[in-house]
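Bug: token stream looks shifted between consecutive jobs. Job 1:
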Amino acid sequence: MEYEVVIGLETHVQLKTRSKMWCGCANHFGSPPNTNVCPVCLGLPGVLPVANEEALRLTTLTGYLLNCAIPPYAKFDRKNYFYPDMPKNYQITQYDKPSTANGYVDFEFEGSLSRVRITRAHLEEDVGKNIHFDRNSGVDFNRAGVPLMEIVSEPDISSADMAYEYLNALKDILVYGSISDCDMEKGMVRCDVNVSVRPRGQKELGAKIEIKNMNSFSGVRKALEYEIPRQIEVVKQGGKLIQSTRRWDDATASTEEMRTKEHAHDYRYFPEPDLMPFQPTEAWLEEVSKRVVELPLARKQRFMRDYQLPAPDAQTFVWDVPLGDFFESAVKAAKAPGLNTKSAANWIINNLRAKLTESQTALADLKFKPAAILELIELVDSGKISNKIAQDVFAEMFVSGEGPSKIVEKKGLAQVSDTGAIEKYCDDAIAANPGPAADFKAGKVAALNFLKGQVMKLSKGKANPALVGEILEKKLKA
């Protein structure tokens, strides 16, 4: 019997706010333990929470970016549980009336587009962090109360690799929208994995096994690559899977059971009595909607469609937004139709990016305008300078900021297309290299490239390469 896997993910993301969710304490990673705390985030008696409006905005903005509906009414609830890292002994979250619902994420997977539906993206608070020493443990409450958004997917994921690609696509969206920095090394993104197996074709879901607090996307993939075969083997052997929570052990590359899974009623949810329900106005929603940005996949598709770029070039401009914006500025500066956009992309990706990295220069500090790239391309395409000379001109542009035409004129770099001059260079190259000349006459075609190189060296890179090739062949075949 064949089995199929059904996976849903709960992704927890710390929001990019300056202060915590319910108080004015700094939302800042790396501070000394228990320094960003106050009576509110420590859950001391008599304190009252006040909602962070920027966190509300970012959650709604996430809803827009994930194609969610924004309900006219949302509320906060208390989720009761007793862990040492939860100072109030309950978490303020959203249960049955979340801030967003019913969206989806489209992403590239195995050569086509896949879609994972989003059940909800709701707002809650993070907990503190347990720190274990040799003989005792401590709790750092700096993280307690940090705005945390939980993005819950539908069980639309069918493999470990698909889960990995979905998580990366989701992260890219959140970073693009300035929702979160998504720095996993700082714990800004964590993931709970819900996975079950069933006979292929069966509609009823199998027992849901949850793998808690995964702190890397590669870890999610590894955990699923272990857990899926484990579950299938249990079922094949006649065993019964029960709903439970497991943890991933990176050292042994295996999951192990922590506890049988709680149900919603175990948390004794009830409406948060200290917070009013949230009912966004049309004006408020309109202000948030102005912060919606073009998503990574849409940007890639647009660069491929509008500028006829291959997928790798378009993806580069997705990963490096300022570089992509520079490319668009250059292309839009073109006055003549039929611009070679691929050539412009090559210069920007291969030459400009390398120079910026090598010189540790920010793109904002570049001395020449995007249109200068087009001018350089035109000089090459028109035959006024060779590709080799263009490299030298570009290097000078980068340092001085002067336009390429001015540099060519000032340094006398214009390409030599005078037949007589090139014939002289060719005669000299043949005379100085009788061996390669004889090799070409004997049928070794590659020898011609060597002789071309010698001619270019004699002309200091100024000779027209196409004419050089023609004249050399003519002379050697005579």
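Job 2, same session, no restart:
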Amino acid sequence: MSRWFSMKKIPMENYDPIYYPQTALLERAYDFVTCSEVAEHFYDPHREFLLLDRLLKPGGFLGIMTCVLESENRFETWWYPRDPTHVCFYQGRTLEWIAAWRQWKLEFPSVNVAIFEK
């Protein structure tokens, strides 16, 4: 993805606590933050969403891609929790709750993608 942004001459920074631990990036604010296949690894989602809120400029966007559980009844047969690194799971209504809590707007442009606007 960063290659695409680079080709379009759109500045982009990469942060990952393991692979790109550039903590100085967490002290700035951004117009757009993406969490692609990341939110399911949040051990403390409250803390992480507060950080994401702080990273967003007013009017900024947060894009989250994670596998969204369609129904609680399907959890036992759902493949997603079988990955031992997946410790946090979301339903559409969970993401709606997060949006209300942070007073963000929310859209679901496609399956397993949520776009929040601060």
